[in-house]
Design goal:
This protein is α+β, with helices and mostly antiparallel strands. It has a single domain, classed as ph1033 like fold, CATH 3.10.590. The protein has five helices and six strands. It is globular. The structure holds a DNA duplex.
Length: about 170
DNA sequence: GCCAACGTTGGC
DNA sequence: GCCAACGTTGGC
């Protein structure tokens, strides 16, 4: 059983996690997308916005989490391929994420582009992650944590990738 | 389907 | 600036 030996590294040293409902856009949808890339649009939370606009850098590695799934799980890794730029879906009155207070000259909402990197051999269920002592401080596992774009510590990232590659 | 936790809005 | 009301997230 060949294991990939290297944990993907962010050039910036920063790691992240993004949530998506698989019924809306799963990691398989990303795998099947043109260039295996998508823009991470529709985020309407200021903290997540700030992360995408100011902090996520090209080459940053990002865990992909399926929320509102059965069971909710971390399912793979994606990579930032385009840094923060205005979320155009906020400008479109016909779009469900339309926000009239976001103007093209002074956009309120930003997004990044992410590209598929790897799908784990085993989805890492939330319940399992809660049993791992070294992950206890993960933002994802904090009570009431709803942030859809969130930081991950380098050691947490490495632990999760190693777990996800086990068969 | 329920509901706790959270973020935002808006009256005062 | 306070805070009640509301809408949303997301696990269970």
């Amino acid at each position: 059983m060949a294991k990939k030996s290297k944990i993907p590294q962010s050039k910036s040293g920063n790691y992240w996690l993004v949530k998506s409902e698989p019924d809306v856009f799963s990691i398989d949808d990303l795998y099947a997308a043109a260039d295996q890339t998508t823009h991470w649009d529709g985020v309407r939370n200021y903290q997540a916005r700030n992360t995408m606009r100011d902090l996520m850098k090209g080459g940053d590695k990002v865990l992909y989490y399926h929320s509102n799934a059965q069971p909710p799980s971390v399912v793979g890794i994606v990579e930032v391929v385009r840094e923060g730029y205005p979320d155009h879906t906020a400008f479109d009155p016909k779009d469900p994420h339309f926000d009239p207070k976001s103007k093209k000259v002074t956009p309120t909402w930003y997004m990044v582009d992410v590209k598929f990197l790897e799908k784990f051999t085993t989805p890492l269920e939330l319940g399992l992650l809660r049993t791992v002592e070294s992950l206890a401080k993960m933002v994802l596992l904090q009570k009431g944590s709803r942030l859809s774009v969130q930081p991950v510590q380098p050691d947490e990232f490495a632990t999760i990738v190693s777990m996800g590659r086990e068969s």
